[in-house]
């Protein structure tokens, strides 16, 4: 094979930024760039910001990561962990990370967890990729206006998302659980058990996951022919005290105290909200299940301990599907997967 001509070599060099280019653009030494990428704790904050801006502007990718990207085979994938969720109580993303980590060795890879930067949504992704520790990412906690998918696409970084890419319906790099179907099943279950007034306790409007689950509640009411109005709903953030207060207001509007035992119920967008509903039911001197039905979502360990009926997410299946999608051979078009949840029935939805 003949050697490349000087012109082609120059063209190749010009097309890919080097660490020297980054150093020159940031006005620092090569060693400072290396420290910024591998040991950012050694670099002063203003200098680190200048280097990372140059990395972003030049779209610099360390050689080890570039080689892995060309192979389209991840030896490690990054996963952003968010420690700021209020009242976690067995947050579903904790379980997903565990399942993702457990299944990783089967593929000869591992998970690199990193914390978010509250001032820059993509900073953690940029820094983790630049460090050479990963060559792809598994996203979670997707939401409207999420800048991460577009940033990863622009930088040609492999990724898969646990949760739909809500603002980009044409993207199919995701695996999700059908929350709408889960809430429909929850309402159908309550109707079969004889509850006829079923309210909804969800998150504030605007959460794509929460809105999807609320739509399932509305669907379920219509399918069961129940008379409960879709307006008989309350909302709260993921906080136990707020959930308890919101559930109390909802139970009052539903007339839980005045109506016959076993006729009123509440379906919830999460197990944490459902725990608030259990507290509110007991505060009224009523018994969950016997007097007021309560159903949660996520089927956490806490739900099992509290005898709470809950929609079970097939998280282990989601983790396996995420790895298959991320590690698919180059050129394989990703096919989105919407998994069906099931209902774990316990005492909180057993009247009488």
UniProtKB/TrEMBL annotation:
Pfam families: LacI, Peripla_BP_3. Residues 17-71 form the HTH lacI-type domain. The keyword Oxidoreductase does not apply. Keywords: DNA-binding, Transcription, Transcription regulation. One of its GO terms (molecular function) is transcription cis-regulatory region binding. InterPro entries: HTH_LacI, LacI/GalR-like_sensor, Lambda_DNA-bd_dom_sf, Peripla_BP_I. This is LacI family transcriptional regulator. It comes from Lapillicoccus jejuensis. The lineage of its organism: Bacteria, Bacillati, Actinomycetota, Actinomycetes, Micrococcales.
């Amino acid at each position: 094979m003949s050697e490349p001509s000087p012109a082609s070599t120059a063209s190749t060099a010009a097309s890919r930024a080097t660490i020297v280019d980054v150093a020159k653009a940031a006005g620092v030494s090569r060693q400072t760039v290396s420290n910024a990428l591998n040991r950012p704790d050694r670099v002063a904050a203003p200098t680190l910001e200048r280097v990372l801006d140059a990395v972003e502007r030049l779209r610099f990718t360390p050689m080890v990561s570039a080689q892995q990207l060309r192979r389209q085979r991840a030896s490690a994938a990054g996963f952003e962990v968010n420690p700021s969720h209020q009242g976690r109580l067995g947050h579903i993303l904790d379980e997903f990370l565990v399942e993702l980590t457990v299944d990783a060795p089967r593929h000869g890879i591992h998970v690199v967890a990193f914390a978010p930067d509250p001032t820059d949504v993509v900073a953690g992704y940029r820094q983790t990729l630049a460090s050479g520790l990963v060559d792809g990412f598994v996203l979670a906690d997707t939401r409207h206006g999420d800048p991460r998918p577009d940033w990863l696409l622009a930088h040609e970084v492999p990724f898969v998302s646990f949760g739909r890419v809500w603002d980009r319906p044409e993207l199919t790099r995701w695996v999700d659980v059908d929350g709408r179907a889960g809430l429909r099943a929850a309402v159908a279950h309550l109707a079969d058990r004889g509850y006829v007034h079923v309210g909804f306790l969800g998150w504030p409007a605007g959460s794509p996951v929460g809105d999807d689950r609320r739509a399932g509640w509305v669907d379920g009411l219509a399918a069961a022919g129940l008379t409960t109005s879709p307006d008989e709903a309350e909302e709260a953030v993921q906080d136990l005290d707020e959930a308890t207060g919101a559930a109390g207001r909802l139970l009052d509007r539903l007339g839980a105290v005045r109506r016959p035992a076993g006729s009123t119920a509440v379906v919830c967008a999460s197990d944490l909200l459902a725990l608030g509903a259990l507290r509110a039911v007991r505060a009224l001197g009523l018994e969950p299940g016997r007097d007021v039905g309560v159903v949660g979502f996520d089927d956490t360990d806490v739900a099992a301990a509290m005898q709470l009926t809950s929609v079970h997410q097939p998280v282990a299946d989601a983790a396996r599907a995420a790895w298959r999608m991320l590690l698919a051979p180059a050129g394989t078009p990703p096919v989105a997967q919407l998994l069906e949840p099931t209902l774990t029935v316990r005492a909180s939805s057993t009247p009488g």
